[in-house]
Amino acid sequence: MIRFRPKHVRSRLTLWYVCVLAAVLLVFSIGTSVLLFWQLRAQMDRYNVQDVETVEGLLYFTPGGQVALREDYHNHPESKLILERLLEVRTPDGTVLYRNARLGSRSLGGNPFPGEGVGGYSNRLERLTDGTRVRMVSRRHSIDGHPTLIRLAYSEEHLWLHLEELLGASLLALPLTLAVAGFAGYALARRALAPLEQMARRAEEITSDRLHERLPTSPDNAGDELDQLARVFNNTLGRLEQSFEQLRRFTSDASHELRTPLAAMRSVGEVGLQKGGSREQYRDIIGSMLEEVNRLTRLVDTLLTISRADAGAIQFNPSVFSVLELAREAAALLEVLMEEKSLELTITGDESAAVKGDRLFLRQSLVNIIHNAVKYSPVRGTISVSVRFDGAGRVIVEIADNGPGIPLEQITNVFDRFYRLDKSRTRNDGGAGLGLSIANWAVQAHGGEIGLDSPPGAGCTFKICLPAAAST
To answer: 427-451 b/e with 16+ CB inside 10 Å = b?
Structure first.
């Protein structure tokens, strides 16, 4: 089965508009015609009743026992022609007593049915013997003491003729109306969809190298659906541009971080081959190369973790554990580094503060943050770790140091990947810039959040909020 479906949206809108308008006009025309017909029929019934009351005063019995109708009742000489009534008088048993000249030999129905015209008027539709449709009213009446049944009717043919003329005129005017409405609807749809076509052309021009461009919006901020669509697309393009920029920066930084240990290993190896040397010297060269290999392995493992985290491929092994105990484990892994700088570490808090999550990843988050505090704390500095409930079903972990702090304008960037506060720091001092990023991801993956407070010259305080085990 072949279905007609216009290619363009404006054509489909116009077609739907014309079809709906055609249906509405058709229903309106039919409804109006039928309503008018019913009103005219109801008016004819009223005329029938009024005319029966008039006829009752005009009927009489002649000396020969026949029923007759006085024609001198109306002053107008042609009133009997204006009425155009069809009149029939019968006895209660059905004997015809009188038929007017307009009715002639035709009959207004058969014998009276039981109760016809008794106690009021009986209205109904009848057909004469020649097929003429009439609207008839019946009533019982006594003429000079003789019981009779008066039947009076008017032809409905002129009502049906008016109905056919009205429907015919409506059907003739319908195609012209639909044609005018179709042209107007097409022009309106084309004008309404013009901004959408403009946005489509602009969208085709936007590539990965031109994500800074945006779709056009209404200059007067109309706020309609098309303008809202353009704003949604522009917001999407903005997020895509940001994602592409992060991807480019991540690729560039990762390439740089991977290239540095590879270059160091190559340089050490080439120098060793050129100079030659004793067995001890070769052991030193191989040791330097293994050190770079270890550094490279850690970096690759970190990048792999980040990649799996972005892909949602990391499976957690949740368990309930004390956060204070976890903080002690994390700090124990960094004791050697703290001893080298003579740092003082204090860990306080509530032993009952427990969370449900993957112990390994949350411990790594604490290790990364405490390691960051160790790196930037001055010699003989202090680091404090506190664990507490906040009264809202969360466990709060605060790691504070007395280092130089972080400038206010850079606080929002410290959790970005490969971000370093001081670009001049070496990899030995500043790391790869991935520790805080992984810590942030691990905390958020467990339904928590991490923040940073760094007043000028007063060190840094990292604040981790995690759902308590009872509310998890």
So the answer is: beeebbbbbbbbbbbbbebbebebe
Residue type at position 342: S
Same domain, yes or no, for 344 and 458?
A: yes
Q: Sign of torsion, CA 139 142 148 151?
A: negative
Quick check: is 49 in a domain? Answer: yes
Residue finishing a domain among 255, 283, 310: 310
The model's pLDDT over 371-424, given as tens digits with 9 standing for 90+, comes to 888 888 888 889 999 998 887 788 999 999 888 888 777 777 777 766 666 544
pTM score above 0.85: no
116, 138 contact by CB (below 8 A): yes
Which amino acid is it at 460? C
> Are 384 and 403 in a shared domain?
yes
User: What is the per-residue pLDDT for 465?
Assistant: 92
pLDDT, tens digit (0-9, with 9 covering 90-100), for 112-127:
888 888 888 888 888 8
From the list 447, 445, 442, the residue with the least C-alpha distance to 465 is 447
Alpha helix locations (H) across 57-152? Answer: 79-83
Range of the domain at 232: 225-310
**Would you say residue 198 lies in a domain?**
no
Domain count across the chain: 3
Residues 296 and 341 in one domain: no
Residue 356, classed as helix, strand or coil, is strand
Average pLDDT over every residue of 265-284: 74
pLDDT tens per residue across span 331-346: 888 888 888 888 888 9
